[in-house]
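Exercise (ungraded).
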Amino acid sequence: MYKRLAKGKKNIVILSSILLLSLVLMTINIKSPKGAFFLESVIAWTVSPIQKLFTRAVDAISDIFSHYVFLVNVTKENDALHREIDSLRARNNELIERMYWQGRVGDLLNYRENYPKKTLVASIIGRDATQWSKMVFIDKGTRQGVRENQAVVTDAGVVGHVMMAMGHSAKVLLIVASRSAVDALFQESRVSGVVAGTGQNWCDMKYVPYSAKVEVGDVVLSSGLGGVFPKGLVVGRVTHVKKKKQGLFQEIAVAPGADLARLEEVLVLLDD
Amino acid sequence: MHYAILFLFLATVFSIQTTFLKLFSFGGALPDLGLVVAVYCGIYCRGNAGIGIGCFIGFVQDCLSGRMLGVNTLSKGLIGFFFATLKNKIVVEGFIPLCFFLALASLLDGVIFYLAWNLLLKGESSGGYLFPYFLVNAVYNALLGQPLFFLMNRGRKWLDAKFPNQVLGFP
């Protein structure tokens, strides 16, 4: 009888400890959401060499299969063509944006380079340990100049921003993550809104007025507000527009410009 | 020695989880290796060691994810607690019971995550889209758990033969 009571008490103590520990961690996280929790850095530091090893091994194996065992030349040619298409699309967007900019501002401003910021190429070494979040690890950290809240992009568009930087690696929150939001505008109409992640493979563009003319295929760019993403980066394209009978805003779905499911290398836009 | 091997094993498990496991995505769901290991340790670790390991696995998972800290610590800790407390009262041998308990643990993990997400981050996202994934995930974890349990059983036997009577210990 007493033994059973003691066991019951012990279980209650253990259960309470688990709840308390979880609550403490959640509180730490909510109180300081931006800073790297010390143990997080330790764990990322421990795991990242093994992640790199696995990533390299998998890349090597997949490279053997895709380039040597199967279709030796066709795959390579296809890869090259895909890269060229991506590059041409990026160039096209860049030119359209430049044309609009020149149209608006005319000769008042001198020609400037699109991205005056320094950039850093980083490789994806890992993904989220749970499937509920949209986050990736990159192989560059504070030692290479990566800091929190720096934008991460590819030539096809915005990828996300650095949410935590450790010594030699960093966590990048993708724009599709439900905690992510980017201030954006439409390339053509210049109507602004906020591109918010949904936790799935697309984003929602919120706060776009009911009266704004939006069509499927419209390009969405970063507006430069918010201080994380420079102005004019491609965020994505509109894939779905719905106007509810009641409401102030439209429901707009945006597919990210960058292929977030197949990220390999990204550019981190460093601070000046 | 058990602790060192367990640490290496977990580092490998999480490296696999965060690197090439996405290749095995099925219906938008990914297997949760941490959950399977937490269930295994809850069942087979001596005394209450499974609870501590469950909490540790959850904490590492929290650190390697973009979500808030504590959610996985709570869910994996509770899974470890559930199995460590009930391991003498339930039968987790054979294909069907193992599938059942792994699916149950997976659903519990999903529900805790959903509740924490909605209660603590109200307004960011409803999280309602997650429900179909919970079910697919439960089935996936239950099926994948079988070969993983087999491998871990083999590893455990080897470990016990090499280093008997260790602190961590398996019954």
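Further reading is listed at the end of the chapter. For now, observe: DSSP finds six helices and no strands in chain B. Chain B touches chain A through 50 residues (CB under 8 Å).
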